[in-house]
Amino acid sequence: MDISNIKLKLGLTEDSSEDNLLTVLLSDAANYLSVYLEGNEIPKQLEYIAEEVAIKRYRRIGAEGITTEKIDVLSTTYSTDDFSDYLGILDLYKKENIKSKSKRLRML
Predict the structure, then answer these.
(1) Residues linked to residue 77 through DSSP beta bridges, in sequence order
(2) 71: which strand partners?
(3) Dist. CA 65–CA 73, nearest whole Å
(4) Is the distance from CB of 96 to CB of 102 less than 8 angstroms?
(5) CA pair distance 82, 90, nearest whole angstrom
(6) pLDDT digits (tens, 9 = 90+) for 56-86
(7) Where are the beta strands (DSSP E) in the chain?
């Protein structure tokens, strides 16, 4: 995974001033995904989730901790869990592809 897709989606293709920040945001999102997928490598088809979460976090810089922002007639509501939109997809992936460590049968 790299930040090129994120930069394209944000319109920052010619600007490299945010590269370090975008790299950190993408790394944080990828680490969360890896933990959620029980330490497994993030499959190619789920990489977009880390990218989208990094974009959400980038756009929210300066408004951390705010749940609702109202400017004149425009109101924006922020989710407190950046991955909430993707949990259904992640849970389905886990169910179909990952054998949970907590459901092992142990013989004593």
Answers:
(1) 68
(2) 74
(3) 21
(4) no
(5) 13
(6) 999 888 777 777 878 888 887 777 788 999 9
(7) 68-71, 74-77
Closest CA to 55 of 90, 83, 87, 88: 83
DSSP state of 104: -
Model confidence pLDDT, tens digit, residues 14-52: 889 999 999 999 999 999 999 999 887 899 999 999 999
Tell me the one-letter amino acid at 54: A
Q: Which helix (H) or strand (E) holds 75?
A: strand 74-77
- Per the CB < 8 A criterion, the answer to whether 45 and 86 are in contact is no
Length of the chain: 108
Burial of residue 51 (number of CB atoms within 10 Å: 0-12, 13-18, 19+): buried
